[in-house]
Design a protein that fits this description.
It contains 16 helices and 45 strands. It has about 850 residues and is α+β, with helices and mostly antiparallel strands.
Length: about 850
């Protein structure tokens, strides 16, 4: 007893010397509720420790020499948070961090330890230790004993261990995990996924670098996702599968909906060596189902419950089509009046069907019987170093919804995202096009001199096919109940290894998720038609605006994109003033730092507005081009809705790093004009200008008629005078694009002028769309004659539940107030308030116009009086 007390004194002294909080005291919850272990972790390089996991996790462990660790997180994020390396997002700091290819796997092999105390262990209950993601291999120890008998392998594979017999309530518990990096980290030689060897592992492929990101030096080694403890009785409840059937063609506005059916299965597992009896209970929508169940010793069984018929259901619809309500469901197993285990979930009542369109060759998707025109964005992942959070996911998905997009593609070189991502998509009505882990670049779609192994060898990646399939099975079960999940895609641009692909198509997907479409790859002929003879996607650079209207691309292009750069405030976060002066222009020597951050380049598009003396002017012109480019992109595609196209997915809508390409908001979550150009071009009910035909057209991409509307077109000169206008009546039919009238030639001005389109319903303005055009092709320099007029501003703020909402009213007098970017700052610190959700931004007001912009952002301890509006 004296020896134990002495050891505890030594431990506490060493632990507190690290500046750590006292070890958590855990109280296990009722069955079905988890206790998350996300704080109080310590880490140390494995090669610095001379003892094994049995000793590290024993009572004799001394934490001196260990550092605070980030869990969930990676080795590198732990090292960064301990100040051992500079921020790799800034300048070329990433080059100061050793790369695993150069220093070896041992350099990033680390122990992670979590000391904790237990108040009690509920009598008769089993305690489970759960890992939702470890990259890449791991051995796990608890209180001097090894937990896993076989070394864990695979980034995308959950693991759960019964640790009831290992826990103690009378003294300290120590959980210790040694995490090993991927077996093949690959050479970050500048290729897509480096030399491709990373794809031999079951892990994310972009970590050796891509054309939009620098290498992740530790290849994201670590306990990167949630760790938790849960309790159950003798019977576990797992992997529910909820399918909703919504027959017929429904309308979002219907006052009453016909019945829908809910079909549910669930896995039950008897963890004891004796038979178990009990009651399976399902509750949802005010209804309760009960079913008596008997399980044999150690039996695991999938149980089907009786169908539930919902009367007048609240239907789930995609963004811009209808609302996205969710139903709650609980499923529990009861024995002798006690809950053995329980699982809860949310689901949406919707039915998605799909077919190949015989006219265009693109994929058609129907939701609740309605054909949906798909606009979407490619999503890499939230943060390149996997610093993930529900809050950041929610903001990012909300940005996509605010762009009026309907689909997010989760790209195959990264992750199957975490449950909070899909939860946010459910809430915002964003359908998910879900790739698995593969890419044409790494998996052999073409010959590539940057790759170490032959194309034929890469066809066989990854090395462990059984592990890959087990990981897919596990992850499908994790996310399949989300109504946002639309369909599965084997990989990016190229099918997976033949036996994996066949197993997915013929066994795994039909068995686990038969209601969803599975396509072999993102450019599969099941998904789109390729008459261009290219890779089946792209291009990715800046285009002339008329190209989007005149060039016939793939009928459902899974990735096509253009430029995108952040605002000047974000530039200053990751570049020095000297580096900012090196902004790229045609004929100018390329900057090493700008190239390092993967600058895509604007060609001569910025110079069309005039000289560029400084970074402020560069950013201002870049945002003008960003807005105009992506509005034309979306309008050009929409002008051929259903005759050429069934959908378009932008490459890409965000960066997980401080890259200078393809982004509607940056790594700091600050928005730029690309977001609002996309938002404008994707308006569900939208008047627009066809730059090829010079026609005014009207888009209704919703599934219901909008009735009689008016569209007014006006020409303005730089002085804000109207010299021509025309009004047309239109019947805005569902899922249609129609031509209203042709614009007259312009001979009243030379150089820049404005076209304003206004959509009115019952005499009230619904939306407007303002273009800046020129009579001198590719020359906007007469913009210099336009006075910079700031609008009058009034603002009001309301605080509720830790967030501010506000209304900002902008007004102008007799002059044009052009392209006003609203920015919010904290007066006290002078720093930006981020993230902020604006109902609109980069706003142009014609003489006499006004606009009310709503904003929403987290309070962050800022007083309303300290909110500053800048332009």
């Amino acid at each position: 007893m004296k020896r134990l007390s002495l050891l505890l004194v030594v431990f506490w002294s060493a632990f507190m010397a690290l500046g750590a909080q006292e070890p958590e005291v855990l109280q296990l919850e009722i069955p079905g509720k988890k206790v998350v272990l996300n704080q109080g972790w310590l880490a140390r390089k494995a090669s610095d420790i001379l003892v094994d996991g049995n000793m590290i996790s024993s009572k004799a462990w001394n934490p001196s020499g260990w550092m605070k660790a980030r869990v969930p997180g990676t080795v590198l994020t732990t090292l960064l948070e301990n100040g051992l390396y500079p921020e790799p997002e800034k300048s070329m700091n990433n080059n100061l961090i050793p790369d695993m290819f150069e220093v070896g796997r041992d350099f990033y092999t680390y122990w992670f330890a979590k000391p904790f105390q237990m108040k009690s262990i509920p009598a008769g209950k089993q305690v489970w230790l759960n890992f939702r993601g470890i990259n890449y291999m791991a051995d796990i120890y608890l209180n001097g004993k090894r937990v896993n008998t076989v070394t864990h392998e695979g980034m995308f594979l959950r693991k759960s261990f019964n640790v009831t017999h290992l826990l103690r309530t009378d003294s300290l518990n120590v959980l210790a995990v040694i995490v090993y990096p991927p077996l093949y980290p690959g050479n970050p030689n500048g290729g897509q996924g480096g030399d491709g060897m990373i794809a031999r592992n079951n892990t994310m492929q972009y970590t050796p670098g891509w054309d939009w990101i620098q290498p992740v030096r530790d290849r994201n080694t670590g306990i990167w996702d949630e760790v938790s403890l849960t309790t159950t009785g003798t019977v576990k409840v797992a992997s529910p599968y909820v399918v909703t059937k919504v027959p017929g063609v429904r309308k979002p506005s219907a006052s009453r909906q016909a019945d829908a059916t809910v079909k549910t299965t669930v896995e039950l597992e008897n963890v004891q060596n004796a038979p178990q009896e009990g009651m399976l209970v399902l509750e949802t929508a005010g209804l309760t189902l009960k079913q008596k169940i008997t399980l044999g010793a150690k039996e695991k069984r999938t149980v089907s419950l009786k169908d539930i018929v919902l009367k007048n259901p609240a239907l789930w619809w995609p963004n811009g089509i209808g609302e996205h309500p969710l139903y709650a469901m609980s499923i529990r197993f009861e024995q002798n009046g006690q809950v053995s285990d329980e699982t809860t979930l949310n689901y949406g009542v919707r039915e998605i069907t799909s077919e190949k369109d015989p006219l265009t060759g693109g994929r058609l998707f129907y939701v609740n019987g309605q054909k949906i025109y798909m606009t979407g964005g490619n999503y890499i992942n939230s943060d390149w170093l996997l610093r993930l959070s529900p809050e950041r996911y929610k903001d990012e998905i909300r940005f996509h919804a605010e762009m009026n997009l309907r689909m997010i593609r989760v790209w195959g070189g990264a992750l199957l995202e975490r449950p909070d991502f899909y939860k946010a998509c459910d809430e915002e009505g964003m359908l998910v096009f879900q790739d698995l882990w593969g890419s044409g670049d790494c998996n052999g779609a073409w010959e590539d001199a940057m790759k170490r192994e032959s194309r034929q060898r890469r066809w066989e990646y990854p090395d462990n096919h059984d592990l890959f399939l087990a990981s897919v099975e596990d992850q499908v079960k994790m996310v399949r109940n989300h109504p946002s999940l639309c369909f599965w895609c084997g990989a990016n641009e190229w099918p997976l290894a033949k036996d994996i692909d066949e197993a997915l198509e013929k066994d795994l997907m039909p068995r686990l998720d038969p209601e969803r479409l599975f396509v072999h790859c993102s450019t599969d002929t099941l998904f789109t038609r390729n008459l261009l003879g290219d890779n089946g996607d792209g291009p990715y650079g800046i285009q002339e605006n008329d190209w989007f209207f005149s060039f016939r691309s793939h009928p459902f292009n899974p990735e096509s994109g253009s430029v995108g750069s952040p605002e000047v405030e974000s530039f200053r976060e990751f570049m020095t003033e000297r580096e900012l002066k090196e902004f790229p222009l045609p004929g100018k020597k390329r900057s090493t730092v700008w190239t390092y951050h993967k600058d895509l380049g604007y060609g001569d598009h910025l110079l069309r507005y005039g000289d560029i003396p400084d970074i402020e002017t560069y950013c201002y012109y870049a945002q003008l081009v960003n807005y105009d480019q992506y509005r034309s992109f979306m309008e050009g595609w929409a002008s051929h809705m259903w005759d050429w196209y069934t959908g378009i997915i932008i490459w890409k809508t965000q960066n997980p790093w401080t890259a200078l390409r393809g982004q509607m908001y940056d790594w700091y979550l600050d928005v730029n004009a690309t977001l609002y150009g996309t938002r404008k071009g994707c308006e569900p009910l939208h008047p627009f200008y066809n730059v090829v035909t010079r026609d005014v057209q009207l888009l209704n991409s919703t599934v219901e008629d909008a009735g009689e509307v008016q569209v007014k077109a006006q020409y303005y000169n730089l002085e804000g005078k109207v010299w021509w206008e025309q009004v047309a009546q239109a019947d805005a039919k569902a899922n249609s694009v129609q031509t209203l009238f042709r614009l007259p030639d312009v001979d009243q001005v030379k150089g820049v002028y404005f076209l304003k389109l206004t959509l009115l319903k019952d005499g009230k303005e619904v939306t407007d769309n303002i273009y800046w055009l020129t009579t001198t092709p590719r020359d906007y320099t007469t913009f210099q004659q336009l006075p910079r007029v700031k609008p009058q501003v009034q603002a009001s703020w309301t605080k509720k539940d830790g967030r501010y909402t506000g209304q900002i009213t902008l007004k102008t007098g007799q002059q044009i107030s052009f392209f006003n970017r609203i920015k919010l700052f904290d007066k006290k610190t002078g720093k930006r308030i981020l993230p902020v959700h604006y109902s609109d931004n980069y706003i142009t007001l014609m003489p006499g116009d006004s606009r009310v912009v709503t904003v929403d952002f987290p309070e962050q301890g800022i007083a309303a009086s300290d909110i500053e509006i800048r332009f």
